[in-house]
Amino acid sequence: MKLVMQTTSENCGQACIAMITGKDIEEVMKDMKTSGPTSIGQLIEILDFYGVKHAKKNTRISKKNPAPYKYSILTVHTNAGYTHWMLLYDNKYYDPEFGLIDGEYTYGKITSFLGIEQETEV
Prior knowledge:
24% helix; six-stranded antiparallel beta sheet; alpha+beta; globular
């Protein structure tokens, strides 16, 4: 997995998709038709567009689902008060805002995840 940093304060979702697919973030923004904030629905739509297999829906972290799958897009509620997307891959956090984090994630609370079923670049 190659870390892709977001190019603005609002395109973490596109950076995550770029990491998953191996595409350039600008190409992802063009295909998504946005360089701004994204919803889980938009992320699922672009994963489908690129043919990336994934879970059917975003899963909330709970007692029933206490941990994300080893390869997931994570929803983070940051300590600064905004919602953010990042990846979990190979027990490391690929955060397009804060960089590669190997260990405890301290920039916010991970609240949900979307499992990615394919570990190869598209």
